[in-house]
Design goal:
Number of domains: 1
Order of helices and strands: HHHHHHHHHHHH
Oligomer: single chain
CATH superfamily: SecY subunit domain
Distance between the termini: 8 Å
CATH class: Mainly Alpha
Shape: globular
Helix content: over 70%
Strand content: under 5%
Radius of gyration: 21 Å
Length: 232
């Protein structure tokens, strides 16, 4: 394993790809810290604190956006609209003969499908951005301006821009980095919540008896890590 890691720094092309991927990961994480304009941050913090204790779907969404949803930043939608659009077109290529024909045109067909997927991503992101503003932010009184129409438009445009940026990063990592860019974006987003989760778990265990399931979870994690290393 260590020999393979050392080979990364010996091969110039592979080294460039690794460093490029790491750079894109750092840039990607910026979307989790640029807030959507005209949101009352104090009210948002109080609301999210109460919402976090309830868990549920919001915690799930927040995990896949790397904390961007909780902070209501431009990356609040994450790359999920792009993933959804990709799945939709994969299904359409099976049931729609015209798309199936385009997909069989080789590289040119693949580029067309990718372009259609990007258009669908923008539409989905706009729709979801408007949904967040109308069904979540405004009813929760987190809007800091009087014009709801302007707030909805700004929220939709901001979150859509964040999704487009993440989609672009994913495509660039696939092209010039290592691995599948979209998968790396999702993986890093999920992993970014690990330090906070570990800290919360340690704080919860202080002064108390560790739950019986904790050693089992740690053992399973170590076994899975060992299995992955041996298989690779």
């Amino acid at each position: 394993m260590f020999a393979k890691l050392a080979n990364i720094f010996r091969a110039p092309d592979l080294r460039k790809r690794v460093f490029y991927t790491l750079l894109m990961i750092v840039v990607m994480r910026l979307t989790a810290f640029v807030p959507i304009p005209f949101i009352d941050q104090n009210a948002l913090n109080d609301f999210m604190r109460n919402l976090g204790t309830a868990g549920g779907i919001f915690s799930f969404v927040n995990m896949f956006t790397g904390g961007a949803f909780q902070n209501m930043t431009v990356g609040a939608l994450g790359i999920m609209p792009y993933i959804s659009a990709s799945i939709i077109f994969q299904l359409l290529m099976v049931v729609w003969p015209r798309l199936e024909k385009i997909a069989k045109e080789g590289e040119a067909g693949r580029k067309k499908i990718n372009q259609y997927t990007r258009y669908a991503t923008v539409l989905l992101a706009l729709f979801q951005g408007m949904g967040i503003a109308t069904a979540f932010l405004i009813p929760s009184k987190l809007c800091a301006i009087n014009s709801h129409f302007l707030f909805i438009a700004i929220t939709a445009i901001s979150t859509t821009a964040g999704t487009i940026f993440l989609m672009w990063i994913g495509e660039k990592v696939t092209e010039r980095g290592i691995g599948n860019g979209s998968s790396i974006v999702i993986t890093i987003s999920v992993m970014s919540s690990f330090p906070g989760s570990i800290y919360q778990m340690v704080e919860a265990l202080k002064g108390g008896t560790p739950p019986i399931w904790l050693p089992i979870v740690i053992a399973l994690f170590l076994l899975c890590s060992l299995a992955i290393i041996l298989i690779q």
